[in-house]
Amino acid sequence: MVRVCLVTNAKENKILLARSPHFRKGMYSALAGFVDIGETAECAAHREVQEEVGLKIKSLKYFGSQSWPFPSSFMIAFTAEYLSGEIIIDPNEIEDAKWFDAHNITNLPDMPSISRRLIDSILLDLNER
């Protein structure tokens, strides 16, 4: 199972996006990772965010799910709020991560990926504030 998590910083009206070296040039997306054997998807979200970008999160909420052909997986998506920490990327996992203002994001994942639906949903919410 693959877990996707979009972290928001409501105080600053920003979302955290990351870039994998496997993405097309310039594309950023929500953080994603695998759920370990015996681990819940919720615990994996906390662990993966901490491992990939060094941040702690809170208020994890289920967003949705999607089957995914590679690697024959099921994806489950969450939103979470930033709790603490500074971005420190794990270069073995991602090549970049940064906070994006809700009004200046381009080059997102294609539809109908759950990552894109997740990002669009949060951006709509942030832009209505």
What's the quick description here?
By secondary structure, the chain is α+β, with helices and mostly antiparallel strands.
Q: What's the structural blueprint in terms of helices and strands?
A:
Elements: E1 2-9, E2 14-19, E3 31-34, H1 41-53, E4 56-68, E5 73-84, E6 96-101, H2 114-127
Parallel strand pairs: 1-5
Antiparallel strand pairs: 1-2, 1-3, 2-6, 4-5
What does it look like?
Strands 1, 2, 3, 4, 5 and 6 form a six-stranded mixed sheet that branches. The chain is globular and about 40 Å long. The protein has two helices and six strands; from the N terminus they run βββαβββα. With 129 residues, the chain is of the alpha+beta class. Helix content is 21%, strand content 38%.
Pick out its properties:
129 residues; alpha+beta; six-stranded mixed β-sheet; 2 helices; globular
Structural class: alpha+beta
Q: What's the end-to-end separation, in Å?
A: 34 Å
Mean pLDDT: 91
Number of strands: 6
